[in-house]
Amino acid sequence: MPEQEMYAVLHCEPCEDCRFEAWQRIVDGRLRWEESQSCDASGVYACGGGWGPAPEWVRERIVACEGSVRLAVGGPDGAPLKAVREVFGLSLPQLRHAREHGVEATPVEAQVLSAAAGPAEPG
Ligand SMILES: [Zn+2]
C-alpha cells in the first residue's frame, strides 16, 4: 500500500464556511500546483503548493472546476512519452498503460504537453 501523504494542515474542522481552491500554472516552463484553504468562521488561511504532479485531491478539484481533455500518448500525434511521464509522475507500467489508452489531462497539463510536443526551442 502506498503511503498517504498529507500536503495541507487544516486549522479548523472543515465547516460550511471553509473554502478550498486549487489550481495549476506554468512557471518557467515547469508545471506547478497551488492550493489554499480559507475560513471566514474561524479566520484561518492556509496554502501550499509544489512542483510537478499535483496531489490527487488537488487534481480532483481542478478537474471538477475546469474539466479534463483526453490526450493520445506517444506516436506521431501523441504527447511525448518523456513529457507525459514527468507531468503525471508515472511509473513505467503506468506509462505503458497511458500509451495504450491515452491520458486525462487538465487544461494546464495539456498546455505543458503540447508545448513539449512542439518544435525544438528556437536558437
Ligand atoms: Zn471552517
Protein architecture, described:
The chain has 2 domains: 7-56; 68-118, no CATH class. It has 4 helices and 5 strands. The protein has helices spanning 56-66, 81-88, 92-101, 107-117, and strands at 18-27, 30-39, 44-51, 69-71, 103-105. The longest helix is centred in the middle third of the chain and has 11 residues, at 56-66. The N and C termini lie far apart (46 Å).
Order of helices and strands: EEEHEHHEH
Strand content: 25-35%
How many helical stretches?
A: 4
Rg value: 17 Å
Strand order of the largest sheet: 1-2-3
Largest sheet: 3 strands, antiparallel
Low-confidence stretches: 1-8
Please give the share of residues in helix. 25-40%
Classify the secondary structure makeup into a structural class. alpha+beta
Multimer state: single chain
The average pLDDT value, as a whole number, equals 86
Q: What's the β-strand tally?
A: 5
Total domains: 2
Cα distance spanning the termini: 46 Å
- Outline, from the CA principal axes? elongated
What is bound: which ligands? Answer: zinc ion
What features would you highlight for this structure?
2 domains, alpha+beta, 123 residues, binds zinc ion
SSE map:
Elements: E1 18-27, E2 30-39, E3 44-51, H1 56-66, E4 69-71, H2 81-88, H3 92-101, E5 103-105, H4 107-117
Antiparallel strand pairs: 1-2, 2-3, 4-5
Bound molecules: zinc ion.
Compact description:
The chain is of the alpha+beta class and 123 residues long.
